[in-house]
Amino acid sequence: MEERISTLIAGNPPEDAQKSDLDTWGNYVAAIARDPNASSTLEAAVFEDGKREVRAALTFNTGGAKRVQATIEAAKERLNEEKHQIFERVLMFFTRSDVRDAPNGKRSGERVIIEEISKRDLAIMYASDLAKERIKHEIREENDNVFKKGFVVDVMSLTRNDKPVAYKILEVHEILDLPEDE
């Protein structure tokens, strides 16, 4: 714990820190950060032959605790940032369709699977009117079942905590009839 707190005071969160780790460390320093005259000492001690030997010690005060909290908040923001990656010409198929329109850049009521990115079905959004019109035409006006079609698309995969959370359809290249399951 002493090493973690000292790196957090220096403004360096551990690369592998998860939200639960950050919460634990934040809770540890919360009382010290609130009290303007507080301090805390962490010691790692061993007892050999009845004698106490301190192997490592860290003392920090209110200022250090506030630096820890600021470092933790910045690390949490980075964890919560949505990141994206573009995939070109991947096969997408619907698990839920919706005839209504959602504004470009907003999640629609539709869900799709793109196995090259994730086995889970995720919400989609449209980056352009052209992509939206091409897919909505298949949903609304074609007599074929949209669930039996594959769409070759360019997508932006939006991720949070390194897990895909939604797809933004950039371009529709081709629409295929999927083979029947036997």
Low-confidence spans: pLDDT under 50, at least 5 residues?
none
- The helix content, as a percent range, equals 25-40%
Sheet with the most strands, sense and barrel status: 5 strands, mixed, barrel
Distance between the termini: 57 Å
- The sequence of SSEs as H and E is HHEEHEEEHEE
Description:
The protein has 182 residues and is an alpha+beta fold. It folds into 2 domains: 2-80, no CATH class; 83-177. Helix content is 30%, strand content 43%. The chain has 4 helices and 7 strands, in the order ααββαβββαββ. It has a 5-stranded mixed beta barrel. It has a two-stranded antiparallel sheet with strand order 1-2. Helix 2 packs antiparallel against helix 3 (62-80). The longest helix has 19 residues, at 62-80. The mean pLDDT is 85.
Q: How does the SSE layout of this entry go?
A:
Elements lengths: L1 H8 L9 H16 L4 E10 L2 E11 H19 L2 E14 L10 E8 L3 E9 L2 H12 L8 E12 L2 E15 L5
Parallel strand pairs: 5-7
Antiparallel strand pairs: 1-2, 3-4, 3-6, 4-5, 6-7
Helix pairs in contact: 2-3
Brief summary:
The chain has helices at residues 2-9, 19-34, 62-80, 129-140, and strands spanning 39-48, 51-61, 83-96, 107-114, 118-126, 149-160, 163-177.
Primary descriptors:
single chain, 182 residues, elongated, two-stranded antiparallel ribbon, 43% strand, five-stranded mixed β-barrel, 4 helices, 2 domains, alpha+beta
